[in-house]
Design goal:
Length: 166
């Protein structure tokens, strides 16, 4: 769950590694989720599998959360067995399917026992849309923010204060 102090100015969106912005098109966006690092890594695993020479290869994708100080980590993961020879568009489709499956499971995990007693982040309004934005930043639109029309920090704070926490 993002916090009010996470909000940054929308002008910083294209180069910030984290923070929360509000856009007129997508609403709240968590820039940490929207970086797409997980998708870059997943597509690299798929590319490596394609180059392996094996008829099939396994690819694992996960999403998780870490407690303060890195003491405990929990999350969800999936491993898919893929037949080598998938074209590029299908590799991206597989990555999107894996990400969507795990993202849903992870948000559901955070929203149910015992996750909901650890975090209030399950199905936060910014999570899934930010994951999806991260995917598309990697595969097709690396600089989407001019199209998404992010607002200033002051405008985002006003919106946050009016509607209360996410």
């Amino acid at each position: 769950m993002s916090k009010r102090e996470d909000i940054i100015d929308g002008k910083e969106a294209s180069y910030a590694n984290g923070g929360l912005i509000y856009t007129e098109v997508l609403g709240w966006v968590d820039l940490g989720h929207a970086r797409g690092d997980d998708i870059r890594s997943l597509l690299e695993k798929i590319r490596s599998g394609e180059l392996s020479g094996n008829e099939f290869y396994n690819v694992t994708y996960s999403q998780g959360m870490t407690a303060p100080y890195g003491i405990v980590r929990s999350g969800k993961m999936t491993t898919w067995r893929i037949r080598r020879g998938r074209p590029s568009w299908e590799q991206k489709s597989i990555a999107l399917s894996m990400m969507m499956t795990v993202a849903w499971e992870f948000e559901n995990f955070q929203n149910s026992f015992p996750g909901k007693y650890i975090t209030d982040s399950g199905f936060s309004c910014e999570d899934l849309v930010s994951d999806l934005l991260g995917f598309y930043r990697v595969v097709s639109t690396p600089h989407p923010f001019d199209k998404l029309r992010p607002v200033s920090k002051a405008a985002a704070l006003r919106r946050w204060d009016y509607y209360a926490k996410l």
